Amino acid sequence: YQRRVHGESEMSSPPFPLSPSLPPRQSTIRGSPSRRNAYKAPAFMTENMENTFITIDNALEYVGDNSRYQKRVIYVLATQWVLYSFFIMGMPFLFKTPSFKCIVDENTAYECDETEACKLGKFVVDRARSQNSVTLEFGLYCDQKYLVSVASSIYFGGCFFAGFIFPQLSDRKGRRLSLLLSIALSGGAVLLAGIANSINMFLAMMGLAGVGMNGLETLSYVYVTEVSAQRFRNFSSVTLTTVWAVAQIVLSPLVYFVPDWRSLCVVVIGIPFLISLLFSCRALHETPRYLASKNKFLEAKVNLNQIATYNRRPPFMYRLQGEMKVFNEEYYKYMPAQLSDRGPRETEPEKNDKAIAGKVNYSYLDLFRLHSLRGKTLSMTYLWIFRYIVYYGLALSLESLGKEIHLNLLFLALAETIACLMSAPIKLKYPRGQSFKVMVLLTTGGCLLLVFFRIPEECFVSKDRLCYEQFFSIFLAMLVKFGITVFSSILITYTSEIYPTSVRSLGYGFTMTAGNLARIGVPFFIAYMQRMNINPLIPFGVFGIVTIFFLRTLPETQGERIEDTIAEYQMVEMPSLSRENNSNKMRMSLLNDYDKLMLAHADSK
User: Fold this and answer.
1) Distance CA 322, CA 303 (A)
2) Model-level pTM?
3) To 10 degrees, what angle do helices 432-449 and 405-429 make?
4) Pairing mode, if any, of strands 100-103 and 109-112?
């Protein structure tokens, strides 16, 4: 290291080209006046880096796991998650029911709720006391009330179709391009929804917004997972979910100052989304883990050097472990017969060049065809369904907790923020399985206890009456929000850990798509339960009881190394940085023999 980076003699250039847009920072000799440009010490260092094979996790640790580049990625994605939270958690305000006055005669009218007004048939909308919502502008009440549930279901339907589009697109075209496309689609759809002049155009834009925002959610988690190692993955997922929760706290007073739904869609969400796209194009690079899984090792090293440059780390000159196969082919090609017994032998799966080389484009069928993925996928699918129906069922049930939905959102947002902040130490300290079970029990108990606290109808009409049932309902809803939020945070990290890199976006996409499919029916279920005057959260407690049984089938992943290839196609273990000294000695012996043979071959030519 001293000889190659800090030495005064002739320096060796890296064996792979660096990014022309991000040139490597000039190194300085220790004690030089320009200390600010000096390299930071990497996580590890070895001699003869060009002939040392390391895993992609080791490579990310070398170039900086929790440093400036990863934080820049989080800052950009966090901005978009604020806007994402504004839109989806602001749906109760977009479709807020207006105030009604029931007419007795020409001179007499009194305040009444929507059910009574529609049943009486003689009413007027009190526009002075009503927020300018989609429901008010397009008349989505009484006979047209079902269109409110249709609009929410169309959005969730777009999320469902996104699960088939973006995982396949990201596996073929890369994480970066797919993520940028999802950001552009989200901002454009919300902007067009804000200027829609008909309910049909608004519904169509809701579907496109669902496609874009679900792609943003899925690919954000995949991206931060693949540009960092274990240390930053927990931090990144917690940061995004915390930003999501804090955005809800901001949203509650924001709707007081921006009561018009068109201004909310265009000025607050749509235009900032498109502006953030410009920063994303410059700040985000393709993930090295994705490039390595596709055997694009040269491009992966270019991106690793880009990250190292931004993080002020020395140039990356190691070889990636996936290159071992290429090394073996060259080694055996020029190896004398007397050395033929010294190298590792290929296993049967290695003979399948397409599978090993990563040239196979996996599909959703492989999640069930392969034995190592089948059971995991079934269990993870149910966990994601449970997460979606409980979380969004609670978000769409604000009116079931009392008349003041602004305060209801604020209390639930506070509970979610606390849960997001506590999820980080929970994930670091406790095993995944134990944390899952505790949070599921908390969520299930909160839902089932709501049976004993039914809010009377008088509490929804009169603002002056204090109802203890409403206070207990909000408290239990906060417990449910806390439990399902921590559960979701752990589930997001766990999904990235349980699937190998080659099928990670497919696993994310399928399980989230299944959750989105179940989520399509949530608005209709909420509306039906409200008509029956039953708290919609009570039936969700039954789903929590079943979830406990699926948790027993899943393995523990905390502290385990993330696999890059599927178990059926894994290569034989090769010596790496984490192996014992004997393995390293054998590897260096093979490399020295290889260097001698290659020199002899060059001399003969």
Assistant:
1) 16
2) 0.72
3) 160
4) antiparallel
